Amino acid sequence: MITLALSKGRIFEETLPLLAAAGITVGEDPDKSRKLILPTNQPDVRIVMVRASDVPTYVEHGGADLGVAGRDVLLEHAAGGVGASSGLYQPLDLKIARCRLSVAVREDFDYARAVRQGSRIRVASKYVHLARQHFADKGVHVDLIKLYGSMELAPLTGLADAIVDLVSTGGTLRANHLREVEKIMDISSRLVVNAAALKLQREPIRRLIEAFASALPQD
Ligand SMILES: Nc1ncnc2c1ncn2[C@@H]1O[C@H](COP(=O)(O)OP(=O)(O)OP(=O)(O)O)[C@@H](O)[C@H]1O
Ligand SMILES: O=P(O)(O)OC[C@H]1O[C@H](OP(=O)(O)OP(=O)(O)O)[C@H](O)[C@@H]1O
């Protein structure tokens, strides 16, 4: 049995065509079902539905053999240091769920001036490790505030001066009168594989990786 960890929403939706390229179809829609383990048309392949940020943990500890997770989630997980992610192979950039990790502030906050003056900036983020690293590299002093969602609210309520969050169209920032001031990195989702599973089930996992790779757009 091969177990693939996915999260609801865009990762699930955007992985479906890749699974189809490997001849795998999922019978149920996770948005309509309460089931957490979804069978597929192949008796030896199943999907487990987990939180996006739990995918690396499941794969690293063998709760799933493979998974799909954003570069943001993978880097934050590795930087969190609960295990060095040594048991986690990343053989493929799937180029799905593309966005960027950026710094954003209120439209009326003079970020460049705050940086120039060496002020302490209060930064709210779900990605506190990546944010800490980014500002340390720039030599900017920050106080970090850990949030689990709705980061855009933090500068609007006075909780923080800036946020580190994902941006795609920029629509969420605009709707909340925020402005992107720095791109930290480009993000896409990767296939991750448990190292031990790769040894024990080399052939079926290799076939799956090859099918996924052949379904990716060439650029
Ligand atoms: N607006 C977006 N456009 C494109 N890709 C995105 C966007 N937002 C997030 N992503 C990517 O998709 C991944 C999953 O995001 P999703 O919104 O489904 O989960 P989440 O709600 O952030 O996770 P969790 O449930 O763990 O809090 C992110 O880790 C990121 O790599
Ligand atoms: O620049 P945009 O295209 O507006 O996307 C950015 C938003 O997407 C992500 O949230 P979430 O996962 O909630 O996005 P969703 O609303 O698309 O689900 C992210 O945390 C931003 O809030």
From TrEMBL:
Recorded metabolic or biological pathway in which this protein acts: Amino-acid biosynthesis; L-histidine biosynthesis; L-histidine from 5-phospho-alpha-D-ribose 1-diphosphate: step 1/9
Q: Which reaction does it catalyse?
A: 1-(5-phospho-beta-D-ribosyl)-ATP + diphosphate = 5-phospho-alpha-D-ribose 1-diphosphate + ATP
Enzyme Commission designation: 2.4.2.17
- Keyword Amino-acid biosynthesis attributed: yes
Q: Name one GO molecular function term.
A: ATP binding
GO CC, alphabetical: cytoplasm
> Which Gene3D superfamilies does the entry mention?
Periplasmic binding protein-like II (3.40.190.10)
Q: How does it assemble?
A: Heteromultimer composed of HisG and HisZ subunits.
What does this protein do, in the record's words? Answer: Catalyzes the condensation of ATP and 5-phosphoribose 1-diphosphate to form N'-(5'-phosphoribosyl)-ATP (PR-ATP). Has a crucial role in the pathway because the rate of histidine biosynthesis seems to be controlled primarily by regulation of HisG enzymatic activity.
Protein name, per record = ATP phosphoribosyltransferase
Q: Which organism is it from?
A: Aquariibacter albus
